[in-house]
Amino acid sequence: MNVHIDFFGIWYAVKSAALIALILVAGSYAADEAGLFFDIHPIMTEYLAMPFAAPHSPAYKALVDDAIIFPHHREVLMAREDLITAKKDFLFTDLDGMTIALYLAGEEIKIFPIKSKGKEGTFFETPNGLYSVRSKEANHLSSIAEVWMPWSMHFFGNYFIHGWPYYPNGKPVPEGFSGGCIRLTSADAKELYSLATPGMPVLVYAAETPPAAAEAHAFFFEKIAGRTPAPPPALTARAVLAVDLETGQILFEKNKDAIMPIASLTKLMTGLVAVETINRFKVLAMSDLALATYGDSGGFTRGERFESQEYLYPLLLASSNDVATLFENQVSGFVEIMNEKARSIGLIDTHFTDASGLDPGNVSTPQDLFRLLRFIDTHKKPLFAITSLDEYTGTSFDGAHTHTWRRVNWPKDERFVGGKSGFINEAGETMAGVWRVRMSENGTRTIAVITLGSASRHHDVDTLISYLEDTFVYGLVYAEKNEPPRTVETGAAIFEAVRAWID
Question: Are residues 69 and 163 in the same domain?
Answer without folding.
Answer: yes
